[in-house]
Input
Amino acid sequence: MTDILSKIEQIYNEKGHKHYGEGVSQVEHAVQCARQAVDDGERDDMVVAALLHDIGHLIDEVNPVHGNFHHDLVAAEFLSNGFPPGVIEPIRLHVSAKRYLCTVEAGYIDGLSEASRHSLEHQGGLMSADEVTAFRAEPFHEQAIQLRRWDDEAKDDMLASTPFASFSHYLESVYGG
Output
């Protein structure tokens, strides 16, 4: 296993127990999200994007209750050396996807968790018409929307957690470092 892949596993082993306003820990959230991608028959890059989309909370913690409001950008930067755009771009755009869906999809905002609605305020709130247009022009915007939907569903404290290490082969298959 390469240094970055070992580092990722170490981050989740050491900090994955943290909670940021949700009923599940960060590692439980990560594996539930990745499990949904697998169950949906997604490609390996999307499984990895689902697994690592919130790693920015664990790398650069800002708010001890809600994590890092810019965790999407922190994660994309951290993963930019070695992971392909199919991993990085949906991660970079998943907060924008939340803002987009809140803006264009009736009732979407009502289904967000309290923590997610709180963070929305700190992440720019609803999008302007120009921001909607710019988001739709992003090459990976559809993947980011799918990632966002898994993100919303991966907060079930009743689900037993799959071990993070069980996704190692997905990480190894897409890492090109």
Summary: The mean pLDDT is 90. The two ends are 11 Å apart (CA to CA). The CA atoms of residues 61 and 86 lie 25 Å apart. The chain has one domain: 3-174.
